[in-house]
Amino acid sequence: MNFLKRMARAVPMAVATTCLFLGSVSAQQSLTVGSDSTLGLSPRTLPVTMTSTAPTEGFVLAIAFDNSLVTIDDVSIAGSVTASVGAELVVSEILPNQGATLGVVLDAGAPFDAQMIPAGADQLLASITVTPITIVALATDAALTFVDGTLNSPPLDNLLVQGGQSVRASNGLGLNNGILTLLPPPPDALRIESASFPSNSQGNVRILMSNQSGPVQGYVLAITHNSAVLTLEAITLTGTVAEVAGAELVVPQVLPNGAGGTLGVVLDFQSPFGGQVIAPGALQHVANFVYSCNAEIIDPAPSTTTDLTFVDGVLSNPPLENVIVVGGQSLHPGLEHGTFTCLPIPPPPVENTEFVCGPANLPLTGDSTIEGVAGSEVEICFYYQDEDDNLQGFQIAACVDCNLTMTDFSLGTSILVDLQTEFVSFDIDNDPNDGDGCEFVAGILLDALPPFENQTAPQSAEPLLIGCLTATISPNTPCNVDLPVLFCDFINGTGNVPIENIVVIDFESIQSFEKTGCVVRVVPDDIFQRGDCNSDDKVNLADAATVLGQQFLGIQVLCADACDSNDDGSINLADSVFLLNYLFKFGPTPPAPGPVNDGSDPTSDLLPFCVSNDSNCP
Q1: Does any domain span residue 262?
Q2: Does residue 392 sit in the same domain as residue 496?
Q3: How buried is residue 238: exposed, middle or buried, by Cβ count under 10 Å (0-12/13-18/19+)?
Q4: Where are the alpha helices (DSSP H) in 204-349?
Q5: Are residues 121 and 51 in contact, defined by beta-carbon separation less than 8 angstroms?
Q6: Are the CB atoms for 176 and 33 separated by under 8 Å?
Q7: What angle (nearest 5°) sits at the alpha carbon of residue 310, between those of residues 305 and 313?
Q8: Contact at 8 Å (CB) between 475 and 372?
Q9: What is the percent of the chain where pLDDT is above 70?
């Protein structure tokens, strides 16, 4: 303020050095503030021009404004005739809620070269930047008025200095006031741009902003989605006008439990406070919400469309509202919701590869049921068949009923042994309480070591053995129960890496092929007396006769193992002779379980299980 006082006194003194060469001053002169209009809170820069009939050595401007409608943000001589002639003393001051003043002396210091503004019409002296402070509903005029004896201390008058004399309104200086017309802006809006993406990919949904109210200093977004259909993966500013403007505070939140996501952005948050804003515009790209579909949709199934919705006062803590910040004010724009469509994807090519599991004799019988007695050990064998391709490797992932305790995996008699398979690794998870059940995973690569000769498993139209898993049936498992062994994708055994069932063909992983599981059926254990062929719970001459009747007369027996008196795995005339020798000639006693006490057969054979009621089922 004191500097302005000194300048006010200095203006006539500084120009006195040039007045010796000037003629009389004309009164046909004026100062004019330009008029313009603006939408919403957008600032406008108004020109202050001078029409003069004599050279001007200095001037003072004092301009008031309607502080209920606008404020003055800046007074500048940039680009004006004042700047072009090299004004040496320029003092501007903005008086909050009052107005602005500008004092200029063209030649204020040695060597006093007599700089001045030549006479002329409508010459730009300065520019005043005016910003609305309210949004109007109807067109409203805000006056910018030249005032004398009011602004600053001491109060200043609007004047020109010409020939060492002050030209004021009182002696002929015209003062033409300006008007900034405030116009209602078009409605501000935030829009979610609807998008469609393949259901097996992530999709970027653009958030668009129309901000005619004025330059945006920041904004907040809060958007929900159907978490049963979509997952919000990320929120970014990539490729947005906010990124280009250099937004300094960006706070994205992907909320837990699929609630939705929020984004807070402040354009200018850090020193030196450069005033970054997003200029007024329509449908400007301000954010990306990146979604993925929770499930793949395979053609010809229909696409799935779900809503993406702006919500106020719901998301985050404290709850956020969708706003834009213009002129330091939070404005609530119109909210235009959108949708995200998960599109069907083409079905994957189907290979004629097949995985099956079953007993060791599956290639002979075609029966995938593995029979075993509670407490006994069984083999669960895995097979492949592919009549068109040679296979470089296998990845097996199986969910196994937890009543089967797995102990080992081996290639056994597989053709993979003959092919000198170089990598075999497996993992067994027998823990029923770890949250993912009991699992078996294995990786097999035929050629894994130098010199890399590309060994492959051969083509086959019939099941070929890969390897067998050894497991023990829980002793307490009831009879006639099927324990499933299923091919399951994306299981991890006792590790962390999800494994799926694949075959490797021509260095590509093939996942789409048929996979057929199997069951371990718990059957009754045969409890019998060796030699009791007629199942009457005693061994005598009638049993020798029953053996002959079964062989030559077609008599049906309930327990073939009991008729196998000599335990050679088959029933024939020798069993009757063996039994007669035991009974009447003091021959060898029939092998265990013997002819006296019931028991199970300790030797395995291909004879059918007993169908009598004698069993050890739990």
Answers
A1: yes
A2: yes
A3: exposed
A4: 241-245
A5: yes
A6: yes
A7: 140
A8: no
A9: 94
**16-68 pLDDT per residue, tens:** 333 333 334 444 899 999 999 998 888 999 999 999 999 999 999 999 999 99
Q: Which of 121, 105, 101, 122 minimizes the C-alpha distance to 113? A: 105
User: Does residue 193 share a domain with residue 161?
Assistant: no
DSSP H helical ranges for 321-392: 362-365
Q: Which amino acid is at 274?
A: G
Residue 509 CA to residue 168 CA, distance in Å, equals 90
Q: What tokens does 596 get?
A: 């006296």
Three-class SS of 134-163: CCCCCCEEEEEEECCCCCCCCCCCCEEEEC
Question: 481 and 585: one domain?
Answer: no
Alpha carbon distances (Å) from 11 to 32, 90, 136, 274 = 21, 11, 41, 34
320 with 450, same domain: the answer is: no
Under DSSP, is residue 379 helix (H, G, I), strand (E, B) or coil?
strand
Sheet strand arrangement including 514-516: 404-410, 460-473, 377-386, 354-358, 514-516
Long-range contacts of 540-547 (CB under 8 A, 24+ apart): 540/583, 541/580, 541/583, 543/579, 544/576, 544/579, 544/580, 544/583, 545/576, 547/571, 547/573, 547/575, 547/576, 547/579
Position 543 confidence tier, pLDDT thresholds 50, 70, 90 = very high
Q: Which long-range contacts (CB under 8 A, 24 or more apart) does 20-24 make?
A: 21/114, 22/54, 22/55, 22/162, 22/163, 22/164, 23/54, 23/163, 24/163
pLDDT band at 613 (very low <50, low <70, confident <90, very high): low
Task: Provide the residue type at 10 as one letter.
Answer: A
**CATH label of the domain that carries residue 416:** 2.60.40.680
Contacts of 520 (CB under 8 A, 6+ apart): 370, 371, 372, 378, 380, 401, 404, 471, 473, 482, 483, 485
Q: Is residue 349 part of a domain?
A: no
Cβ neighbors of 55 (< 8 A, separation 6 or more) are 22, 116, 117, 118, 119, 162, 163
- Least confident span in 344-353, 515-524, 591-600, 605-614: 605-614
Distance CA 468, CA 396 (A): 12
Distance CA 88, CA 93 (A): 17
The whole-angstrom separation of Cα 439 and Cα 430 is 7
Pairing outcome for strands 377-386 and 423-429: unpaired
Instruction: Tokens for 325, please give them.
Output: 């910040």
Residue labelled with tokens 């259909």: 229
**Are residue 200 and residue 62 in the same domain, yes or no?**
no
Determine the structural domain holding residue 532 and report its residue range.
Answer: 525-618
